[in-house]
TrEMBL record, chain A:
Alphabetical keyword list: Cell inner membrane, Cell membrane, Membrane, Molybdenum, Transmembrane, Transmembrane helix, Transport
Keyword Cell inner membrane tagged: yes
Recorded name of the encoding gene: modB
Domain ABC transmembrane type-1: 10-214
UniProt-listed InterPro entries: MetI-like, MetI-like_sf, ModB_ABC
Segments traversing the membrane: 12-36, 48-69, 89-114, 135-157, 196-219
Subcellular location: Cell inner membrane; Cell membrane
Organism this protein belongs to: Kushneria pakistanensis
The protein, known as: Molybdenum transport system permease
Primary location: membrane
Family indicated by similarity: Belongs to the binding-protein-dependent transport system permease family. CysTW subfamily.
Topology relative to the membrane: Multi-pass membrane protein
UniProtKB/TrEMBL annotation, chain B:
Highest taxon in the source lineage: Bacteria
Protein name (Swiss-Prot/TrEMBL): Molybdenum import ATP-binding protein ModC
SMART domains linked to this entry: AAA
Keyword list, A-Z: ATP-binding, Cell inner membrane, Cell membrane, Membrane, Molybdenum, Nucleotide-binding, Translocase, Transport
Lineage of source species: Bacteria, Pseudomonadati, Pseudomonadota, Gammaproteobacteria, Oceanospirillales
Organism: Kushneria pakistanensis
Domain ABC transporter stretches: 1-229
């Protein structure tokens, strides 16, 4: 049904986006929690920094990534020297680019749902002998799960559709960093490949729709559970 | 022993209190909304920090601003029952109950579940409970944390009459069967009459009075605050027997005198608290054989003090307990009442407190 080229692009896309999500999940939740539950000096500045990838041209983000994470970059140089790691022009680099671009979406969604968690429930848990850490993992985070799911799906979809930062930082290498959007771009550039491009376009739409449907299903399931309608009566 | 010595700026007024309450029985913080009672409870629980002062329970210091001590809430071992119950919506009732992880099963768990009648709710989600059930589970959850003191912040607010009475009965049962000091915050005299032993009256962050409930009820200078209590007396009596034929329950007071009440459903030989309104007590010089007053108690006048214009408040001693009566000045004059005189208290009606 799918050509080997399409399968490869799909595989790279899922691998890159999945990894991107894994990279930013924990830092994203931590950042959302920091912004939702704490007041500190420089909070608006940090908030602005987090949102920067949302408003910057993706190419700028890709360029900045090259500067910082490239072999001669501040962080990238250290990584290459000590661990022999080089991120530019690799699929891991593409994942990093996707992750950075998706980060603000994840933080926004998780922050909103953390802010919606009733602090009075957290206070009640504290009086029942739970430390701050236990309160976070047993009360705050579980109650924020619907928002977390939404945020994760948004971030995944954003990483899936990432183009500018990826092509700048990780280039467009077949079998390595050529994700669905990059493959589609390449096909459009090639005369006589209009049909193949259209097919890839359909594949992209199907993947995006599938992730949205999955998130909706997960969110509804969680809501139903909390409303007590799920196996509630005994 | 509970010590609350706090100075704290709150909104438009200062909370400035120095309260010592016994480390047993039910101590009530009474005051209108905005009197600072919930603030005190939150500080005791560790949810708010006082500007200055110290808080200690049974010689364990929770807060001492001078010595820079602040024990975080999760290390205080206090059970808190909040006004809005605050059950965790994502856990079943059973998991809510065992959240504190001190008692998660066995006889102690069964006892609390049984005491509160929540066994059939264990597998439900909190969203599927009624208001009264929610409150009962919240009380159970606090009890299963094995606290050194139970703090209840207006636990009956928002329930309708019947549900309120039902939950109040559960709480009264609790105070009888579980040996745990309770701090009960409320603005409702009815509730306090039913369960409070010690009463702290708060107004705009200041302690107006703090003593045993019976003692405070007899102080007419507290009328502006305790007006809602309908000046009355609480007597402790023991159930002697039930007379279903007359729809009556016979009680005996400490000194052996009898009291008759409309039929109760408490067990025999159980101690109950009954309430006698001041205006329901008349005074005679001898037993009235031909009257409809069925409750006539031998008493001695302890003190007489002027009440509302034209009236006299009489403090009577019955056995070891006090009883209050309000009569007209004219009647007192005609009967020649004076301290030390032996009289008979005629009681029109007695009801169970709570």
């Amino acid at each position: 049904m799918l050509t080997p080229l399409e399968i490869e692009a799909l595989r790279i896309s899922l691998q890159v986006s999945g990894t991107a999500l894994l990279i930013i999940l924990v830092p994203g939740i931590a950042m959302a929690w920091l912004l939702a539950r704490h007041e500190f000096f420089g909070k608006s500045l940090l908030d602005g920094l987090v949102h920067l990838p949302l408003v910057l041209p993706p190419v700028v983000v890709g360029y900045l990534l090259l500067v910082v994470m490239g072999r001669r970059g501040i962080v990238g140089g250290w990584l290459y020297e000590h661990l022999g790691l080089s991120l530019p022009f690799t699929w891991q680099g593409a994942a990093l680019a996707g992750g950075v671009m998706a980060f603000p979406l994840l933080v926004r969604a998780v922050r909103l749902s953390l802010e919606a968690v009733d602090p009075r429930l957290e206070a009640a848990a504290r009086t029942l002998g739970a430390s701050r850490l236990r309160v976070f993992f047993t009360i705050t985070l579980p109650l924020a799960v619907p928002g977390l799911v939404t945020g994760a799906v948004l971030a995944f979809a954003r990483a899936l559709s990432e183009f500018g930062a990826t092509i700048t930082f990780a280039s467009n290498i077949p079998g390595e960093t050529r994700t669905l959007p990059l493959a589609l771009y390449s096909l459009i550039q090639t005369p006589g490949m209009e049909d193949a491009a259209a097919r890839l376009c359909v594949v992209s739409i199907v993947v995006a729709m599938a992730s949205l449907v999955a998130s909706e299903w997960l969110a509804r399931r969680t809501r139903r559970r909390m409303a007590g309608r799920d196996r509630g009566e005994s | 022993m509970l010590e609350l010595c706090i100075g704290h700026r709150q909104g438009s007024f200062d909370v400035d209190v120095d309260i010592m309450a016994p480390g047993q029985g039910v101590t009530a913080l009474f005051g209108h909304s905005g009197s600072g009672k919930t603030t005190l409870l939150r500080m005791l629980a560790g949810l708010d920090r006082p500007d200055r002062g110290h808080i200690a329970l049974n010689n364990r210091t929770f807060v001492d601003t001078e010595r820079r001590i602040f024990v975080p809430p999760h290390q205080r071992r206090l059970g808190v029952v909040f006004q809005e119950a605050r059950l965790f919506p994502h856990y079943r009732v059973r998991s809510n109950l065992t959240y504190a992880r001190r008692i998660t099963g066995g006889a102690a768990f069964d006892r609390v579940v049984d005491l509160l009648g929540i066994e059939s709710l264990l597998a439900r989600m909190p969203g599927a409970l009624s208001g009264g059930e929610t409150r009962r589970v919240a009380i159970g959850r606090a009890l299963l944390a094995e606290p050194e003191m139970l703090l209840m912040d207006e636990p009956l607010t928002g329930l309708d009459g019947a549900r309120k009475q039902e939950l109040l009965d559960y709480i009264v049962r609790l105070t009888r069967e579980i040996d745990l000091p309770i701090l009960f915050v409320s603005h409702d005299p009815e509730e306090l009459m039913a369960i409070a032993e010690q009463l702290v009256v708060l107004d705009r962050g200041q302690v107006i009075a703090s003593d045993r409930l019976e003692t405070l009820l007899s102080r007419s200078d507290l009328n502006p605050w305790l007006g809602g209590f309908e000046a009355s007396t609480l007597l402790t009596a023991r159930v002697l027997r039930h007379d279903p034929a007359w729809h009556a329950t016979r009680l005996t007071l400490g000194d052996g005198q009898r009291l008759t009440l409309p039929l109760l459903d408490s067990g025999e030989a159980q101690d109950v608290r009954v309430r006698v309104r001041r205006r329901d007590v008349a005074i005679a010089l001898s037993h009235q054989g031909d009257s409809s007053f069925r409750n006539q108690l031998d008493a001695v006048i302890e003190a007489l003090s002027p009440g509302a214009p034209g009236t006299l408040d009489v403090t009577l001693v019955v056995g070891e307990q006090r009883l209050f009566s309000r009569i007209t000045l004219e009647a007192a004059e005609a009967l020649g009442l004076r301290p030390g005189l032996a009289v008979v208290a005629l009681i029109r009606s007695v009801s169970l407190a709570g």
